[in-house]
Amino acid sequence: MSEQQRIYPVDERLAADAWIDRDRYQKLYRQSVEDPEGFWREQADSLSWSKKPATIKNTSFASDNVDIRWFEDGELNVAHNCLDRHLDSRGDQPAIIWEGDDPEDHKTISYRELHQRVSQLANGLKSLGINKGDTVTLYMPMVPEAAMAMLACARIGAVHSVVFGGFSPDALAGRIVDSQSRVVITADESVRGGKQVPLKDNVDAALTREGTDVVESVLVVRRTGGDIQWHEGRDRWFDDVVDQQPTDCPAETMNAEDPLFILYTSGSTGTPKGLKHTSGGYLLYAALTHRTVFDYHEGEVYWCAADVGWITGHSYIVYGPLANGATTLMFEGVPTYPSHGRIGQIVDKHNVSILYTSPTAIRSLMAHGEHIMDDSRRDSLRILGSVGEPINPEAWDWFYRVVGNSRCPIMDTWWQTETGGHMITPMPGATDLKPGCATKPFFGVQPALVDNDGKRLEGATDGNLVILDSWPGQARSIWNNHDRFVQTYFSTYEGVYFTGDGCRRDEDGDYWITGRIDDVLNVSGHRMGTAEIESSLVAHQDVAEAAVVGYPHDIKGQGIYVYVTLNDDVEPSDELKQELKQWVRKDIGPIATPDVIQWAPGLPKTRSGKIMRRILRKIAANECDGLGDTSTLADPGVVEDLIEHRHVRT
Ligand code: WTA
Questions:
Q1: pLDDT for residue 165
Q2: What is the atom index within ligand 1 of the atom nearest the CA of 515?
Q3: Where does the AMP-dependent synthetase/ligase domain start and stop, copy by copy (predicted)?
Q4: How many CB atoms lie within 10 A of CB 472?
């Protein structure tokens, strides 16, 4: 049998205690699409509202009126839901277990302690002039202060914008300016895999860029004690601001549709866009998916190995787990340090039941063999999860056998920054698994496949993945640019949300995500816009033109392949290749560093001047036989040159 036909049926023992079994999934799913109001009204009872919503759903995907509101007359506070309401029943239970980069470094923070610290920080932010509706940028390592800062913002109704700590000063500056943040929270340095990253230096550099003079204060967490520059009047030590504050800070009453956070992500064109997520619907969706997809039960230790700089960290390290009163493990380091068995060691050390990670992490370990986990038992594990990119069956199998001892089901969760939470995913007690398949829609999610003209495709088929109706966790807009939101997601096909992903539906109605069909790359599970990398390259004095495509990469999923046309007077050289790689790395961040640069005397273009990426992708993938129709090219000769000089991986 081929890999794709292998089926792992639901473990009946697991199903017996699961929140959702087969029957319940069928029944609830049907209700969620036939009567969304009724379904979500009932689900909303799991949150604590200061004013219960009477109106549940008020949403339109029509391209002339994209307007998405859930629970619009409801009022609540997200931090209250994640902290205060747990104090009576589980105040002394660990809320966060922090595992440092160094295995000797760890600490546990109870719900009571977290509540106190968040309240103090919230008061601290107020003392810096931050009020309801203001934005705050976070550029943080994976330390508990990152979660505290998010929750402190939520507590006072400020809107946080977390920028991944691997982004460059320029990328950070762009996001600070776009969100107009008056306060930035950072740390002296972050530590990953035994190496320091100079976060504070990066903030200093970012704040020399145009437009960043909106920033009045920089709060600095002392993580390593490393050397940093100090700007009197602007910079403050986190502890100095927070320690002196009262531990009591009333949670601001927020409307369900008030913004909770902005998160920037890459698209096919232009600069990264700040997706706007709001309070009530987002929190409910994050909490419900976390509880049901990971079948979270009281007292379990749950570990999502993402970074808080991505949506996965927002929904499944912080908001979902804490809303459910879970114990969430936060890991500062990388899975390969100090040894390849680190994940297993952490699982044993903290008794982890649920482990949620990425195909890239799995592939980076897989390369080191079957025995790297032999120094751990991993008996506490019950459920595994995967996110970020399609998981190839080989990686699925290794994860299942070597990490999960062939007894833990893998939840392959498909979703996006834009969706706020899981969209297509198995559930442990309800879904038979197929390696590499995201399987079935979550409650309230109506996926459909369409052809390039937007015609609905039925039955077993390939197509473009769209979602027919709104769900509560959906992003509401792009910060300060609703037109771009409409343009990006609701104008390709009328009346539906376009995901940008290709997908196959099989005979059982299971969904297999096949990857992006737009100009977005997925490198190690990180989204990169080809346009961003191209515009960085053409900003270099020697570059006339650049085209960026993805190619299959054993570990990263996709690698970055760049075709560069140099200015006439410039000689190509290996030194220049290195220089261009460093240029992009410095401009955007290490994750955007090109893997391959090929000199291109010309790029294949249509007569109207459009670059034919389809052809460039094929050449990069070394599939030169099936180049398809090249008759519309302005100069078919350039293709032969590119084929001849392509970079073939060994
Ligand atoms: C891809 C991450 C296949 C997909 C939560 C999507 C996946 C993009 C999966 C979103 C999966 C994410 N299987 N592909 N389980 N999960 N993707 O916004 O292409 O960083 O559109 O959100 O990652 O990436 P983002």
A1: 96
A2: 19
A3: 84-467
A4: 28
Ligand 1: centre distance to CA 8 (Å):
23
Nearest atom within ligand 1 for CA of residue 390: 3
Q: Is the complex ipTM more than 0.95?
A: yes
- Kindly state the helix (H) or strand (E) to which residue 565 belongs, with its residue range: strand 557-566
Is the separation of the CB atoms in 595 and 560 below 8 Å? yes
pLDDT, position 28: 98
**Contact at 8 Å (CB) between 176 and 212?**
yes
Ranges of the chain with pLDDT below 70? 1-4, 650
By most ligand atoms within 8 Å of CB, the mutation choice from 513, 520, 526, 556 for ligand 1 is 513
DSSP 54: S
What is the whole-number distance in angstroms between the Cα of residue 485 and the centre of ligand 1?
A: 18
Around ligand 1, the residues with Cβ closer than 6 Å are: 265, 310-312, 387-390, 412-417, 438, 499-501, 513, 515-516, 522, 527
Identify the pLDDT of residue 610: 81
* Cα–Cα distance, 23 to 331 (Å, whole number): 36
Residues 6+ apart with CB under 8 A from 271: 174, 178, 532
| 644: phi then psi, degrees, rounded to nearest 5 | -60, -40
Q: With residue 176 as reference, give the H or E element that holds it.
A: helix 169-179
- The reported pTM is 0.95
Q: What is the model's pLDDT at position 650? A: 60
Cis peptide before 426 (omega within 30 of 0): no
Asked whether residue 415 is marked as a ligand-binding residue, the answer is yes
